[in-house]
Amino acid sequence: MCINVKLFKKCFLPMLLLAASVSSFSSEKDLYDFLWLDPDKSVYVLQNKVFKKADSFYINGGYLMGITGEFQSTKGLKGSAGYYFNEEWAFEVGYNKYSTSNNEAFQSIQSINQSIPFIRRMKSQISALAIYSPFYGKINTFNKIIYFDWNFGLGLTKLATESNALTVSNVSTADTYNEESYTGTILKTGLRVHVTPSFHLDVDYQRAMYKAPGPSVPGQSAADEWRSNSDVILSIGMSF
Amino acid sequence: MNKLMILLFTFLLTPISYASLAKANKYFKANSEKNADKIMYELMRSKYYFSAAEFAKKVIISGKPINKNMEKRLVTLILKTGTLSFTGLDENILKGRHSKALNFILGLKYFNDGRYKEAAHALRKPGKRHRFSPESLMILGASLNIINKDKNAIKAYKSCIKSAKHFENKANNVKLKRYYTIIKESCYIHIARMYFKIRKYKKSVHHYEEIPKTSYRWPYILLEKAWAYYYMRDYNRALGVLVTYKSPLLSSYFMPEGEVLSALSYFKMCLYQDTLKVVNNYYGVYKNRSKHLKNILLKHKDSHTYFLKLMLTPIDQNEKANPFIRNLITQIRKQIKFNLDLVNYKKLKNEYKFLKKRKKTPLVKYLAASIRETLNWRTKHLNHYVKKQMFSFINDIHKNSYEMFNIKLEIMSNKRDLIYRNKELVSDRSRGDISNVNRTIDQHFYMYNGEFWADELGDFSFGLKSNCQEVKTDKK
Amino acid sequence: MKNLLIKLILMTLFVSSGINAQDKKNVVFKYKKHESFDLGNLEIKGNIIAPGDLSVMERERKRFNRNLLDRDDFNSEVKRDIKTLR
Description:
The complex is a heterotrimer of chains A (240), B (476) and C (86).
Chain A: E1 2-5, H1 13-19, H2 28-31, E2 43-48, E3 56-66, E4 72-84, E5 89-102, H3 104-113, E6 120-141, E7 144-163, E8 178-194, E9 199-213, E10 224-239
Parallel strand pairs in A: 1-6
Antiparallel strand pairs in A: 3-4, 3-10, 4-5, 5-6, 6-7, 7-8, 8-9, 9-10
Chain B: H1 2-31, H2 36-45, H3 49-62, H4 68-81, H5 84-87, H6 91-94, H7 100-112, H8 116-122, H9 133-146, H10 150-170, H11 174-197, H12 201-208, H13 218-231, H14 235-243, H15 256-268, H16 272-298, H17 306-312, H18 315-318, H19 324-333, H20 336-357, H21 362-420, E1 423-425, E2 443-447, E3 460-462, E4 470-472
Antiparallel strand pairs in B: 1-4
Helix pairs in contact in B: 1-2, 2-3, 3-4, 7-8, 7-9, 8-9, 9-10, 9-11, 10-11, 11-12, 12-13, 13-14, 13-15, 14-15, 15-16, 15-21, 16-21, 17-21, 20-21
Chain C: H1 2-23, H2 75-83
């Protein structure tokens, strides 16, 4: 499946002129007269992919931004590596390391309401995913053709977190964070922009889903509920 | 302009050239044969390269061993004056010399004479970093290829690519870089042709695809690639590749064989109406055009200068006489040999003019006479080179019109056969459909929406359905 | 023995002169002016080795395959590349 984003008719003129080094003849008007190509037969464009993925390894390193926590500012680093078995399917493992801090909303609620909200902070995450990459396309912009892949991933993840679930409901105890660990599923989608056959830039969105308890009220046990954590990741990578 | 160049040449070289030429005169007077190497050196210092080449030949003929310095000077002279200065030497003189430059000349000479085995032998040790390694390896590969030593040929071509890449990276000016790029690409193309010969068409196409679309070689390989698709029975792709020649960008690259291949591809899909359209167009347009061109050229077939002059005048002035003239001039002008020979020819003319202005010493008289002879010979040679290509183009059109005739006969025979058997082909002509396009997983696919991007030029495919299924006439 | 040989020669001469005399007579052959065959009454003996009814054998038409253009190699192009190189 392919996407061909044809932005402007005229934007490919410089490329045409480049190709015109094979002939000094022909006016611009002729170039836009495509009757020679399509007189009475349908014509299709069938191109070899410039950036092939089959049987190739890749490694990525990048910066991540957490977009889930209401009261936390989350950022971090992500490293991942994968292998494409063929043009469409790959296996990928990744590791996220998070750094969190209380954000403005947290401080507001603390100073105005004199209370502390329930918070679960991400510490790290290990994941293993199957990647399906069915879309390959090109964009012609800034007089340059940019090739990209659009992929989807599904897998398992193990999250290391810490939360104030045990202390947040009890006003008499100091707010403390206890370490936790959960296993869940992970979904992702990403856009890979090819810079050279070896280098690429990735923009990913990933969402981890896991079952974890909420704040425990004294005398009651907190039930596990489905919770999620979403990140946006910008990374640079190499293929070989 | 020429006068200005001579003036500039004179001004720049005067101080050294007077001293060196005086020395050369002295050596010439003493003993021209014995001092040939010294005279050659002094003439080179004065930048009289064509004159120096005359004495270099004397040194080679004398049988003196070629030392390192002489090898360097020979390389310079070949580069400055062209291979033509030395290919006239007798093979017995060139044989068995410890000189890669002379081995290259010998190999080239053998190749041009069709003695491929001897060419391969002469070039068996081309060296890796010698100035003529890329060319030698390419000729070696071609010789081995023609005598069917395929494995060794591929090995030579691979070394050619490596060596050409090395010099391409080292080259400090654009023209030299482009020269090595063309050699590198030619070796890729030759490998593709070898795979074609042994019927490994997929591999062949893969190697053709190493050639970028901006390359000078690219328009020519479209036809060869289309043949590979044709033998892979991907007639839609063959037709798509061939339709590229109709692009205004490639208007100077008319390939008569491409028309035959288009007709054959339609024929193989039993699309007889489309086949006949191509055949009739060939007869109606191209054959008449070539007849007309032949009439123009035949008038000048005995001229020693007409064809060369044709190449040197602006295309616009000649193309009105016949549209194929643009084709031929553009294609010949892009050949390395023609360009190098033409540059050398102009340099030779200048050297001759310059020599005539010098004091008439015995050496200058001797050189002027021999350079004049060389000039006359090179004029005829260049003229012949152009003439040969123009007439072989006309012959190609005629040869291919015979092929077209055969296709037409075959269609008539097939149609008659269908009538005898009370059958007809299943459907009529159609515009084609996406379902008939063969696509692999590493290819991406677009519908053509009235415009294409430059990077898509040459990547077209038709989507026609084979019409070879027969049905009973009354059942249809 | 000699006598026997002479007798034989004489007898041969005598007989041959007799035949020559007969040749000179006009011999007239006469045929029946009308004769009819009763085909229904004819009895033919033998084995049937062909189909009883009249038939035309349909035979594949001979097709003359023309040699359409084929490309075994690009050797001529390889040669041209070298000849236009230097």
